[in-house]
Amino acid sequence: MTKPSTIRIGICGLGTVGQGVWKHLERSRADLQSRLGVTIELHRGAVRDLSKRRTVDIPVEKLTTDALAVATDPSLHIICELIGGTGLAREVTLAALKAGKVVVSANKALLCDHGAEIFATARKHGGHFLFEASVAGGIPIIKAVREGLVANRFKLIYGILNGTCNYILTRMVQEGASYPTILADAKRLGYAEADEALDVDGWDTAHKASILAFLAHGVWVKTDQMIVEGISKITQADLKHAATLGYGIKLLAVITRDFEANQVFVRIHPTLLPKDRVLANVNGVFNGIAVTGDVVGTTTYIGRGAGQDATASAVISDIADAVALLTTGKAPMLPEEAASIHDRGRNPSIAPLDKIRSRYYLRMTVKDEPGVLAQVATVMANHAISIASVIQTSSERSDAASLILTTHESDERAMGQTLADLQKLSSILEAPLLLRIGDFEE
Ligand code: NAP
Ligand code: HSE
User: Fold this and answer.
1) Which of 134, 162, 170 gets mutated to test ligand 2 (max ligand atoms within 8 A of its CB)?
2) For 345, left (φ over 0), alpha (ψ -120 to 50), or beta?
3) Which of these is catalytic: 101, 108, 208, 250?
4) Whole-number pLDDT of residue 398
């Protein structure tokens, strides 16, 4: 293999993340060059709108609107795909891999939807795909699971994987600020996706969970094989009730493995986490992930999960790995080699969602009249659901009360049937809110 003395990089997409990469790579270029023993050139960039003002000084002659021309430019060795989405981003990625290049990506939606195709294309054409920035922003969680924890089998991985949602929930608790105001701030700060529904409805967390599940267990779990719920129904009242009960509410990805049944469960939902758990105290744009391995026990990772600088840090770490790969031939482990060395080839199946077990929190707006609590308790008893606690408070409606129940452990099937039956009661005035309680055994 001839070792190139100059590595040329093309960046497709110079928005929040792309400009961060350009800025920090320029700043750290001399240091990186001396550490890696090559000259690094930021050669070309692709954007949608050439006339847009950028916060980073990028020579206009280096820019084009033709991202595919950058992806296939024979003079480039590394292509950063920082456009987002699954349309042009997929074309750019596949074109660069077919040309044998190293693609560095922060695109979790693309990986979740097209991961199998991307890795197959890379293998077939001698390209490589690196994706540290796709999960948990600046936290090197991909490296941790793929390399640092390779001796382990993972019975539980759970975490806060979306900076925008954690930022919103934190400010709702700490300031009582309104949801639309905080979401607008998250967008201004560059945390939110171009389509913010991906964040607040849980899909972005689901994409990241899919990637972690693949690294840990070697199977692609699609979003329609997961429970995916977002944070938009969480009210200030829920946050207060949870606090009274000793919990914080976090949007979590929970990936569990039943080794006996050889099944993987993936779920994304707002979760009541006991306040003494580390992740219950991870706030703002920070992400946190607890990974329980059978050899190491539980290791926990905390850091900024979104935003320009944190994400640029992860992209640049992949660029450094890409340079090492191009100059020494040392490639990172392929994802299918990543799942625990004891677990490779076992191909777990994806568990039916109604088997997922949990304790539950249920908030109902009910008629404020005698017998209502008894009706609710009867419905729950009919489905063998045992009530653990009850709080009744006043409601915004004068004729109604808020009823907040927690349950002992049950499963999704029983809770689904319970919810359906509760909604048939004329004393239940609005659709109940169901949240899961995260008493995880680490
Ligand atoms: P962004 O600010 O919206 O930037 C997207 C960039 O792509 C812009 O520069 C845009 O050009 C360019 N682009 C869009 N359509 C194009 C086209 N047809 N041809 C050429 N260029 C095109 O997005 P971002 O926040 O940087 O996110 C980029 C990726 O990183 C996404 O996959 C996202 O999920 C991921 N990510 C983001 C974060 C974060 O905190 N923001 C963190 C981790 C991962 P113009 O500038 O001219 O409009
Ligand atoms: N929108 C994402 C978030 C960006 O808020 O976590 C980081 O992936």
Assistant:
1) 162
2) left
3) 208
4) 85
